[in-house]
């Protein structure tokens, strides 16, 4: 076997070697992609899962105004704690202030009118006294006596009327002052300002708005509104413990204490924040609470919540499976 | 004696190369065609293989294979999380959306929405950028084949070549802005569409508005129970179809097998390769033995035993078998290595295929040796004097 004859088997051996190498490489598996964060895990044996949305324990209060107008001053900043009754913002009140000046003047006018009426009454009274005290009835005509008595009665009535006008104008002033007071919107409870969506110079509309002028709430205790699919609602038992996990880091979790069940099952909104929120199913809403310092959580944030349930006693066969098995 | 047998073989160059070429071509056909077939089949479930982390896939009971997503309600995710034995469950959006390129061309692409918090289901190998960058606004990650292929930026001049997508480029998905933050390596899919990764919520806002958006729920089972048990329990408790990753792969594979004629086409070529290989090789080898009959007669006359003659022919047959198979396997291996990871045609060369085709080649050469041995054994030593 000379060199020439060894070439082809040599190439063949090389080819086979390459084939074996390629085949070995094909066996190697690429490692799976590792998650950026570990997914949430339930700390219970038997549980139901739900999407939770954090809210203030007082609910998120969307502050509105009863009177529309241009905002003059905003007294609070976002994140500022406020006491009940503290002013939040003030709407331009020049129109009502001007009206108040007129109405104050009207009070003075009405008071002057009272003095005038009183003087008239005095006059009428003395005129009448002159004739009524005369001993001889023939000295004055009956006609004159009656005229003077009526004049006195009329003057008395005018005085009453003038006094009423003073009260009325006083009330008018008070009404305008209330109107001015209403232009300052105040905090209804102790809490923290979560949003300020109005700035001086902007027009504040009265009524229910999609973006609140100011949002505030009591944040000492945070509530988690948990949406439970209506298909799982029967498994939920009130007063059972629950755990909430922060999204993105499952080590940040806290136990929740039960607050209440919303007795009305509402249509669920996908929490996409998009303008076209989709309603896809109905959910039972359950409120749980946790202390604010337990987690670095913010109002409006979503959480993964697990609620402990008793173990399923008997298997419940849903319709779709029953149909499948019946085939 | 074996030296002489080899000398006989190498002496007749024409026939030697003829046999080797025959076997090399037969083994080429028998390795390459099934290799391409395996590659195509593995693409049918390549997506399930890529998303390697979850054990169980939960889907609508009507889903027939992986690309046939039948969306479910978003709240099903939380029902699945409440099933016993589920360690975690995350949503996955999978759908086809059209991407508009800079020149207005629309390209159908596979949009994948990964769980926002964990990004489970993401690509294993990032070529550029980081998976966590998906949390940036409007961020998407494009697979390499798509970035260099169908989603590449169109050429500015008519003759120019399209430039591959880079990190920082902008795409338009259903009129919405998408920022490319990474290029990933993903296994090619059966439909060979570009793959675009993004987060679940962003995918649902990219997608045309539908009432249901959740394609799959990816579940990791607790380790103390078998996957089947947990999957059956999920199906039982929620009415959703839960399949282990292997079951889902098998189901997808069966669907493609039953609904396309790929297997028949490739199988036919393999059978033809075997028959032609056997016929050609057998024929030439037999001819070669006939030509050398005189020498075998001489050996017989010199007193060579039947056993020795058989061994000589077997040696010749095995050598040509080895050389032919080595050349064929080497050529296909180079082809496999060259096409690996490509979006277009590619083939998979694995152990089973190599051993199987080796056995087939061995059968061919043994068959050729058998008919030659029969002729030689019946030979009268007197032939040498004719």
Structure described in brief:
The complex is a heterodimer of chains A (327) and B (386). Chain A has 327 residues and is α+β, with helices and mostly antiparallel strands. Chain A has helices spanning 3-27, 94-132, 142-182, 319-326; strands spanning 47-56, 61-63, 69-74, 81-82, 87-91, 184-186, 191-196, 203-204, 214-217, 221-229, 242-246, 253-261, 266-269, 279-291, 302-308.
- The overall strand count of chain A is 15
Radius of gyration of chain B (Å): 29 Å
If you consult CATH, what is the topology of the largest domain in chain A?
Answer: Elongation Factor Tu (Ef-tu), domain 3
Helix-strand sequence of chain B: HHHEHEEEEHEEEHEHEHHHHH
- Give the biggest beta sheet of chain B: 6 strands, mixed, barrel
Spatial strand order of the main sheet of chain A: 1-10-14-12-11-15
Dominant shape of chain B: elongated
Head-to-tail CA distance between termini of chain A: 71 Å
> Which class best fits the helix and strand makeup of chain B?
alpha+beta
- Give the overall pLDDT of chain A as a whole number: 85
Q: What is the CA–CA distance across the termini of chain B?
A: 24 Å
| CATH architecture annotation name of the largest domain in chain A | Beta Barrel
Strands of chain B, total number: 10
Spans of chain B of 5+ residues with little confidence (pLDDT < 50)?
none
Instruction: Give the domain tally of chain A.
Output: 3
What is the count of DSSP helices of chain B, taking H or I runs of 4+ residues?
12
The arrangement of helices and strands of chain A along the chain is HEEEEEHHEEEEEEEEEEH
Molecular structure report:
The complex is a heterodimer of chains A (327) and B (386). Chain A is α+β, with helices and mostly antiparallel strands and 327 residues long. Chain A has three domains: 1-57 and 219-327, Elongation Factor Tu (Ef-tu), domain 3, CATH 2.40.30; 61-92 and 184-204, OB fold (Dihydrolipoamide Acetyltransferase, E2P) (Beta Barrel), CATH 2.40.50.100; 94-182. Helix content of chain A is 35%, strand content 27%. Chain A is rod-shaped, with a radius of gyration of 42 Å. Chain B is α+β, with helices and mostly antiparallel strands and 386 residues long. Chain B has two domains: 2-44 and 261-385, no CATH class; 73-239, no CATH class. Chain B is built from twelve helices and ten strands. Chain B has helices at 2-11, 13-44, 46-50, 76-81, 144-148, 200-206, 227-238, 245-259, 262-291, 293-302, 306-339, 351-377, and strands spanning 56-59, 86-100, 106-114, 125-128, 139-143, 170-173, 176-185, 195-199, 216-221, 241-244. In chain B, strand 6 and strand 7 form a beta hairpin. In chain B, helix 2 (13-44) runs antiparallel to helix 9, helix 2 (13-44) runs antiparallel to helix 12 and helix 9 packs parallel to helix 12 (351-377). The longest helix of chain B is centred in the C-terminal third of the chain and has 34 residues, at 306-339. Chains A and B meet through helix 1, strand 1, strand 10, strand 14 and helix 4 of A and helix 1, helix 4, strand 2, helix 6 and helix 7 of B.
